[in-house]
Amino acid sequence: MSKNKNKIERYNIIAMVDSRYGLSVKGVMPMKSPQWGSYFNQITKHNSVKNNIIMGRKAYEDIILKTEHKVLQNRFNYVISNTLIQNEHDDIIIHKTLIDTLCTIANKRKIENFQSKTWIIGGKRVIAEALEFYKAYCNEIYLFKLNHEIYCDLYFPIDLLQDNGVCFTPVNENVTMEAGKIVKYILREKVKPQECQYLDLLKNICDRSVKSVSNESCCYSTNSSILEFDVSTEIPILTTRTINYSDIRSKLVEDFSNNYFDTDDIGFRLRCNGQKFGSKGEYELNDSIDKFLTDFSKTTRLSTLCLSNTNTENFIPFYMNFSISDSGGRLNCLINYNEIDVCTVLPYHLIYFTMLQHVCAHILDIRPSKLTIVMARPFVLNDYIDFIDEQSKFDPKSAPKCKITNLNLKDMNFLKSSDITISRYESWPNARNKKKYEKLLIHDYPKH
Q1: What is the pLDDT along the chain (448 residues), one digit of tens a residue?
Q2: Can you list the domains of the chain with their CATH numbers?
Q3: Contact 346/371 with Cβ under 8 angstroms?
Q4: What is the pTM of this model?
Q5: CA nearest to 345, candidates 309, 306, 377
Q6: Which neighbouring-strand residues pair with 440?
Q7: What is the CA radius of gyration of the chain?
Q8: Largest CA distance in the chain
Q9: Is the Cβ–Cβ distance between 227 and 342 less than 8 Å?
Q10: Could you check whether the bond before residue 123 is cis, i.e. omega within 30 degrees of 0?
């Protein structure tokens, strides 16, 4: 059995809050309830196996250390801390991050094949991080909500339960206590990380086992497929392998600041292998987008930008459409490919076009919304099947955030790399350093 930590544990949350969802004040939980303590133990314990309890350092010091046994008995106690030292705490398991903790538990489950539940009990920072970045791995939330208010300075992030639509819905637990009641939230529907659709596409292509010869290379392909990403805040950078997004950001800036298109790499020519995008090169691109932005700013209504080039020899045919919703508040992008290499090319185009979408939306003072990728013939080269098999073993981590930080940016021609900020990109390591993967792993724009 592999000991790679490539899976993420599914978890539950349990906490006590006041009538306004207050959690603590000055790092201390002011709420006390013997009834709640009894219910908490009943829920988090298991008769035959030890469940897992995850908490931050302050919650550990405030709640657990004050108990008679200094730990929650018959449960594995995981504490997230940058200051506690494992050698000094034999009764708890210390990790520096939440994701390390979730992966450790999932890996242990895979190796030992045990049945247990995992509970996050606080404090605010750990709960908020779980719901903001790993919501897709949350099953249930139990809140003991008091009937009265107690002064608190930290609150349960109840707003994250309704983020991106109502992901969680309250259900009647029929548990009422003297001081309050139990409110249980469950996922309305299973939320999957957006990256899963990309992994499903890879799996579908490889499972089809339809080999063909393309450009003298053996490949697997499948029929038409559609990927749709919500890019309002996230950017679809793969986390199941490591992608160097900074080079793609630099390339985007170069495409709008140089007097010509480079004959290498990505750009709007999208792999035209040295063929010009049009008679005016970079100016044609800037003129088209400038006109799109200007027309919308004048009319504030539905506007569409189309760029296409399907007749050039050696060109991966594509069609790009930027459109603004009828309400005028959201910018959508549609990319249509006749064929594309899903392993070596598509991951970089996803980043490129999402960044461009965010820049255009910022200039228009509206929000980016959906990025839709339509592929008539998605394929992967046979050389990378083993790489894809290993990549597919990893659970996606949380998608990074994309933000335009230059509030004064009003012209594409003055775009700089520092204007686009990508935050919280956490990825799994790439496949083991094999000779045949060198081109894919070292060079960010592998030749088609």
Answers
A1: 344 568 899 999 999 999 999 999 988 888 888 888 888 999 999 878 899 999 999 999 888 887 778 889 999 999 999 999 999 898 999 999 999 999 999 988 877 767 889 999 988 999 999 998 898 899 999 999 888 899 999 999 988 887 555 477 777 666 667 778 888 888 765 668 899 999 999 999 988 655 554 555 688 888 899 999 999 989 999 999 999 899 889 888 877 776 554 444 444 444 343 344 444 445 556 677 777 777 766 665 556 666 655 444 444 456 778 888 766 688 898 888 888 889 988 998 899 889 999 998 998 888 999 999 999 889 998 888 888 988 888 999 989 999 999 999 888 878 899 999 999 999 988 766 555 565 555 444 433 3
A2: 11-187 (3.40.430.10), 195-442 (3.30.572.10)
A3: no
A4: 0.81
A5: 377
A6: none
A7: 25
A8: 79
A9: no
A10: yes
Residue with tokens 């520092």: 418
- Amino acid, res. 162: Q
